[in-house]
């Protein structure tokens, strides 16, 4: 069988057998990718999390953990925003969406004992808000908080897995991390907050109205803004 562009030599990868730690994922792979040193991180493919469903992502990636009882797949995804003027991440696919759950976790460097990244848990739901159906597909999304010189395109590193058995309850007891897909009030109410009620500013009213219209129109990945490089 001819090798694909996603095959790689495990013995040359940081994190032998490609089971790297959170620190290695951020401090080596994600850092080098964001600096444009692609030849140092060729073990991990670049895919767009919005353009493929989780099962298609898995089918396009080959790594050493595919033969285990609990396989994991690693890939880079360009950071995509829903709007050009703020940092709301877009995580919609053609058939569903990735919903953030739980609290963000800090990734620290053991050597300097400082934060170098953020780890977020995402669960794939089929359908659209507020009627999406939770699945067993989970992503741990890593974002670098490093101060990188000459940084190019913005990326996140994703660790994809499919939990066995029944749909897992990955949400912890802490307050959930609010994400666009979790804000179901947008689709459950047509009310726009009036200026003067509470602390709403004209800008907040405009953003709320924009969110309502985009949910109604079913905006997909092709309709979002990409960050400038």
Automatic annotation (TrEMBL):
Domain NAC, residue spans: 12-163
Entry annotated with the keyword Membrane: no
Keyword Metal-binding appears in the UniProt entry: no
Record keywords: DNA-binding, Nucleus, Transcription, Transcription regulation
Location relative to the cell: Nucleus
Highest taxon of the lineage: Eukaryota
Assigned GO CC terms: nucleus
GO BP term, pick one: regulation of DNA-templated transcription
GO molecular function, one term: DNA binding
Cited PANTHER family: NAC DOMAIN-CONTAINING PROTEIN 82-RELATED
The protein, known as: NAC domain-containing protein
Annotated organism of origin: Erythroxylum novogranatense
């Amino acid at each position: 069988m001819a090798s694909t562009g996603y095959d790689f030599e495990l013995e040359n990868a940081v994190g032998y057998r490609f089971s790297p730690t959170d620190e290695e994922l951020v401090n080596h792979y994600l850092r080098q990718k964001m600096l444009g040193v692609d030849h140092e991180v060729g073990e991990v493919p670049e895919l767009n999390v919005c353009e493929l469903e989780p099962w298609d992502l898995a089918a396009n990636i080959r790594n050493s953990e595919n033969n285990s009882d609990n396989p994991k797949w690693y890939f880079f995804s360009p950071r995509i925003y829903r709007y050009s003027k703020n940092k709301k991440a877009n995580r919609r696919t053609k058939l569903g969406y990735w919903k953030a759950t739980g609290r963000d976790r800090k990734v620290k460097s053991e050597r300097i004992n400082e934060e170098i990244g953020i780890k977020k848990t995402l669960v794939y739901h089929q359908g659209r808000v507020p009627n999406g159906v939770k699945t067993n597909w989970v992503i741990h999304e890593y974002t670098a908080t490093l101060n990188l010189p000459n940084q190019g395109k913005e990326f996140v590193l994703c660790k994809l897995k499919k939990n066995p058995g029944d749909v897992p309850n990955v949400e912890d007891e802490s307050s959930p991390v609010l994400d666009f897909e979790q804000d179901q009030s947008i689709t459950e109410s047509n009310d726009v907050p009036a200026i003067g009620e509470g602390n709403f500013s004209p800008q907040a009213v405009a953003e709320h109205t924009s969110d309502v219209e985009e949910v109604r129109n079913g905006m997909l990945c092709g309709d979002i803004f990409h960050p400038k490089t």
